[in-house]
Design goal:
The protein has 496 residues and is an alpha/beta fold. Helices cover 47% and strands 13% of the residues. The protein has 4 domains: 137 residues, P-loop containing nucleotide triphosphate hydrolases (Rossmann fold); 74 residues, Helicase, Ruva Protein, domain 3 (Orthogonal Bundle), CATH 1.10.8; 169 residues, Rossmann fold (3-Layer(aba) Sandwich), CATH 3.40.50; 68 residues, Helicase, Ruva Protein, domain 3 (Orthogonal Bundle), CATH 1.10.8.60. A 7-stranded mixed β-sheet has the order 7-9-10-11-8-12-13, sandwiched between helices. The protein has a 6-stranded mixed β-sheet with strand order 3-2-4-5-1-6.
Length: 496
């Protein structure tokens, strides 16, 4: 259901109070005004703490316009005779005042018999606990493809700027702006127009660059460039095969075939075995943007702020979709959801994420990684949340050979005479990250010894300088393997 239709239905069903959440106040006001015009005999008033009441259009006002305190404003709304919509802008700071909260609860009952609706227009969802269950929420989504296309055409026409784009390039430009508010999109389009005096291919890169800066301000989500390739992952053949089979899963042909969008995967395993690398390589393989969510930055100090940050981050991911949403070390992100030490904020944020994960329809592939299942809430692993749960173990002998070759090829593209099978045999119990560190150690030692070329013996010595995690945390790794035995799918091929 479109937000305009949803808002209209709620008003016509005589809901006394509505929460309309939008960071784009002007766009929100315009939409409410458009809905009001469709309703017969409804007066429309806007109120804020600076301007007070103002009628739209400004004729035949019953209310004394001008500045009023919030309690008086609510009392005047209750006493108003006639059918009307009252939009209260940025009213959330007054929820802390007991008399205001009480008056809002009074309106829930007194307005029900009348055709009067109060709409609380705010940039984020925040309601007193005693009102939350009785007040429907309406969220204004970010502009869609058609809205942005119309905005671009409007700007080009108004500024008499020529568009030098093919149909495909224009589509790519508009898609690159998805995830921005209307004002942000207008800003980057105008910047491109002023810089180049034409809308051409250069506008796409400019919009993407500006978009990354804007999204970075949000702090919760971060763009990751796709530099790693799937071939940079040594081993994990079962996982790589699963990912390669879904390479074209978000294409139009897959949709025509009847394939559902992949939901996501949870990758559990030993530290340093390539879980994070897999997230980055998947982005390159599927040619989809990679967004990393920093759940720690979701939590704010104000009541309701954390849930709103999570909701906005998920909405942004949906707007940019198809994309990959990467949540690293998910057990640390949501471990506090199992406790009640923060008045239930973590549990509510976790609940928001779980509900979205279960019900999302947009093509957002969630790739979550974790090291310690003991701290993972069991609800997260319920069927339907993820397509698969993969377990990444320490690399086998064959995988260690592949890992050595991958890392040696990075630092010495022309492979020297290294005895890779010997090195693989001497690194049983070493993770991929530890093998990489052993090569780095060898390079430092050889460079310090007269800047000579490092050898197999140098790497063997570098291996001995690394204490593997299999020794430091052997009991925990064994416990993790036992847990994963019948609960997960192996990311590694079975050793021969």
């Amino acid at each position: 259901m479109e937000v305009r239709e949803e808002l209209s239905i709620l008003i016509r069903s005589r809901q006394p109070l509505l929460s309309f959440v939008s960071g784009e106040e002007e766009r929100g006001r315009d939409l409410i005004q458009a809905v009001a015009e469709e309703l017969d005999h409804r007066d429309l008033y806007f109120w804020n703490a600076v301007a007070g009441f103002r009628k739209i259009p400004p004729v035949g006002s019953q209310l004394e316009e001008g500045r009023t305190d919030p309690l008086t404003a609510l009392q005047r709304i209750e006493a108003y005779r006639g059918d009307a919509l009252f939009v209260l802008e940025d009213f959330h700071p007054y929820f802390e005042e007991p008399v205001v909260g009480r008056m809002l609860r009074n309106l829930l009952y007194s307005l029900r018999a009348a055709k009067k609706t109060v709409i609380l227009l705010s940039p984020f969802f925040k309601l007193p606990a005693e009102l939350r269950d009785d007040v429907p929420q309406v969220f204004l989504p970010l502009p869609d493809f058609d809205s942005l296309k119309g905005l671009l055409e409007e700007l080009c026409e108004a500024r008499e700027v020529k568009s030098d784009l093919t149909k495909e390039s224009e589509e790519k430009l508009i898609k690159s702006a998805l995830g921005l508010t209307e004002n942000q999109a207008r800003g980057v389009f105008i910047k491109s127009i002023l810089k180049h005096r034409v809308i051409d291919q250069s506008a796409i890169q400019l919009v993407l660059s500006e978009k990354q800066k804007i999204i970075k301000k949000d702090e919760v989500l971060e763009f990751f460039p796709a530099r790693e390739k799937i071939s940079d992952i040594g081993g994990l053949d079962n996982l790589k095969e699963w990912l390669k089979k879904r390479d074209k899963a978000f294409s139009g042909r897959a949709k025509e075939y009847g394939l559902p969008n992949p939901k996501g995967i949870l990758i559990i395993g030993v530290q340093g075995t390539g879980k994070s690398l897999t997230a980055k390589a998947t982005s390159a393989l599927w040619k989809l943007p990679l967004l990393r969510m920093d759940v720690g930055k979701v939590f704010g100090s104000l009541v309701g702020e954390s849930e709103e940050r999570m909701r906005k981050a998920l909405l942004l991911a949906e707007t940019i979709s198809p994309c990959i949403l990467w949540i690293d070390e998910i057990e640390k992100a949501f471990a506090t959801a199992l406790s009640s030490g923060d008045s239930g904020t973590s549990a509510r944020v976790f609940g928001t994420f779980l509900t979205w994960l279960q019900e999302k329809e947009k093509p957002v592939f969630v790739l979550a990684t974790g090291n310690d299942v003991a701290n993972l809430p069991p609800e997260l692993m319920r069927k339907g949340r993820f397509d698969e749960i993969f377990f990444v173990d320490l690399p086998t002998y064959d995988e260690r050979i592949e890992i050595f070759r991958v890392h040696l090829a990075k630092v010495r593209p022309v492979i020297r005479d290294y005895d890779v099978p010997l090195l693989a045999g001497e690194t049983e119990g070493y993770s991929g990250a530890e093998i990489e560190q052993a090569i780095v150690n060898a390079m430092y030692n050889a460079f310090d010894d007269g800047e000579r070329e490092f050898t197999t013996e140098d790497i063997r010595f570098g291996v001995r300088e690394v204490i593997p995690i299999s020794k430091l945390m052997s009991e925990r790794i064994e416990k993790l393997r036992e847990w994963a035995e019948e609960r997960t799918r192996r990311a590694n091929k079975e050793p021969h």
